[in-house]
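Case study 2.
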Amino acid sequence: MSALSDHLARLVAAGVAALVGFVGPAPVPVESTVPVVRTAAERPASGGERVRRIAAPPRRTADASSGRNATVPPNVRSPSSGSSGSSGSSGSSGSSGSSGSSGSSGSSGDDRGSRSSGESGGRSGSSGSSGSSGSSGSSGRNSPRTGAAGTADGVTAATTHGWGTPSREDDFTGGVGDWGIYDGSGHDGNGRRSPDAISVQDGVLTITGTPDGTTGGMAWNPGRMYGRWEARVRSPAGDPDYHSVLLLWPDAENWPVGGEVDFMEISDASRQNVEMFLHYGADNSQVQGDVDVDATEWHNWAVEWTPDHIAAFLDGEEWWRTDDTGILPPGPMHLTIQLDNFGGPGQETQMHVDWVREYDV
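Prediction:
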């Protein structure tokens, strides 16, 4: 009987110990600040790569029903002069984290080859005429070029990955004479795109969106089949309905079949999150990603388009990629720079560009 009691006591003690261990405090998981890149096997069918450090703020979805823009051939007008300077943000730029996800098919867009009066205002294409050089404006506070990093290249994808010498480049010291300046209806019919929104001061291009919805954009023609493009951009905090965009647009003006590559789109009003959209197919399907970074500071944004992939870069680091050749653009593309009106902006918003460069593959 004594032996049985001892055995029962041991069982009770073991059970209590197990119970204490079960309900006791567990270690608090600590989120890693080191980005984790998933292997190819863990990526979705689109091949979109994911890297993330911190959660992104709420974002707008892509305008899947109508695309970014239809095309309105610009009239040739000189950009206005004026101050493009705005106060530079203090502090160093943060390291980048990003995420990506497969996009669902959007509804079919209209025929972008037509120029009907009801068509959405949009991007200049291969038919876009070059705007004349912008004159120097009055002195503004803290010109973008004289800000924290405006006079330096920073870390570029071209240097990091050995892209060589640019096939062409523009640092805007001669104005915008090599660009097609938009003059027509705004994105999706919102407001207007006007040459008056484009200004150059101290070799820095500025596109200004006003509270009444007037903004601007410009196209770098001609395009090419495959290439690499890189631009140094800063976007001060502004209105959430003004999106700063760097993109590749089809020379054939056959959106959505011709594709669209938005390798820098900023919809976050605080400019702390940047998105990537790759549009493809007749139904405007999309894959996308986003990266958390202080875009109010100067950063270098680049895209590489080859026969077997498209990759996006931030300050020399690849942060998004797809190896799905079935969704790559089918024809030549050209670079455009746009500050797009997505609805009802209520405050003046700007984007600044220090330089752009194009490279052979």
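Residues 64-86+99-359 form a domain with the Jelly Rolls fold (CATH 2.60.120.200).
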